[in-house]
Amino acid sequence: MNIMQVTDEPVSLEVVANEMNTLKYYPQRCVNCGMCINVCPHGVFMPDGGKVKIADHSGCIECGACKMNCPAAAIDVDSGVGCAAAMIRAALTGKKEPTCGPDCCSN
Amino acid sequence: MSEIMATTGELSASDRRDHILARIGWDRMGHKVVPGLYRLGDPAPDAPVFVTSNYSLSFYALRSGIAGMDAYILVLDTHGINVWCAAGKGTFGAEEIIKRIEVTRLREVVQQRTIILPQLGAPGVNAHEVRQRSGFKVEYGPVLASDVKEYMKDHRATAEMRRVRFPLRDRMVLVPVEVVNYSKFLIPAALVMLLLGGLMGLFAVLVVAIFGLVFFPMFLPFIPTRQFSSKGLIIGFLGGLVFVSSQVWLGGSIFGMTGLIKAIAEVLLIAPPVAYFALNFTGSSPIASRTGVKREIFRYIPMFVIMIALGAILIAISAFAPLGWSL
Predict the structure, then answer these.
(1) What confidence tier does A1 reach under pLDDT thresholds 50, 70, 90?
(2) Cβ contact (<8 Å) for B286 and A60?
(3) A67 in the same domain as A24
(4) Are residues A66 and A88 located together in one domain of the fold?
(5) What are the DSSP calls for B124-184, one per residue?
(6) Is the pTM above the cut of 0.90?
(7) pLDDT at B323 (0 to 100)
(8) Which of the listed CATH numbers 1.10.340.30, 3.40.50.11600, 3.30.390.50, 3.30.750.24 matches domain B5-164?
(9) Residues of A in contact with B128 (CB under 8 A)
(10) What parts of chain B have a pLDDT lower than 50?
(11) What ipTM was assigned to the predicted interfaces of this complex?
């Protein structure tokens, strides 16, 4: 009898991704807790029987709420703030993007 | 044990004054409330606990939203930054929630073990971590504090309550603070343009400010195209056309080679700064993604620079042409 490595993950992990943003969804990992549906402010996810389904990939603004609250690591997104002022400031000063507050937008 | 502070659902005159000052950008970092635990009404040990940031406008919104209820409010120290922005930076996050629960001895104040967070705090908070480390279950309430009472009926938010919208009112309330923020550029620009181009120069700056900082946010969802910059260029071209036509109305001419070149130059000089304001409005909106904004910066900033350079060359040509240059 062959000894097989036991893993709870299939060899090929299905991933749902798109061109417009960095949101990636791994449906095989989804435990259907519905947390992503609750936290997403743009209706990107929707229930679909035993697993969550992506309803509107282009609506994602990469806030990261879904990834942060997914207990099964079924969502990945390169989250960040979509603020041109902060990115331009970072490019001009050569520093890291400033955070909202005394360093940016307050004087 | 830190004191439980008392608060009310009704905003006082000084709260309202603070609200107005915040909305006009006065002392931007100074609109804070003391972090800690607040009592609203006469909460029993099983009363709900709502969490918010210590930006005073966030606190006011929650208080007004749950006015009439008996509840506790746990105010996190987010350094005077609102829930959504603080969550984006992680200051509205698990660490601060857990720490604030400890400091206020919330476990001894209430018997129930659920805290209700605003949905827009979710980007900064790992709900599972909070539960494991503090024993409190995190429940995400609706986006708007004004929907909290409806939410409390069965602890369910409708799909609509979970969506962030950016209606006209929310866009226009940002205008004064944007104008104040940009005044450090706009006032010097107005003085320089007044010296260079007289009253029409001053008027050009006014057109840029009005189209970029007022008309752009006002018409945002109705401007065709998807990106902020391209929408801004459309509004900027309209601003340029308004500027050129007002000159015609004042007796100038766009006819003849010189007049036409000058008109094109003016449109090329007015549209990019308007579009730049539009691009920067991404940070004030809840609808822009980091990837999208990055793409816009690389694509449109070079375009803006080229347009301005071309506009400057054309305006110089049109200025020197009457002196005897032949075109």
Answers:
(1) very low
(2) no
(3) yes
(4) no
(5) G--HHHHHHHHSPEEEE--SSGGGHHHHHTTT---TTTTS----HHHHHTTHHHHHHHHHH
(6) yes
(7) 63
(8) 3.40.50.11600
(9) 69, 71
(10) 327
(11) 0.91
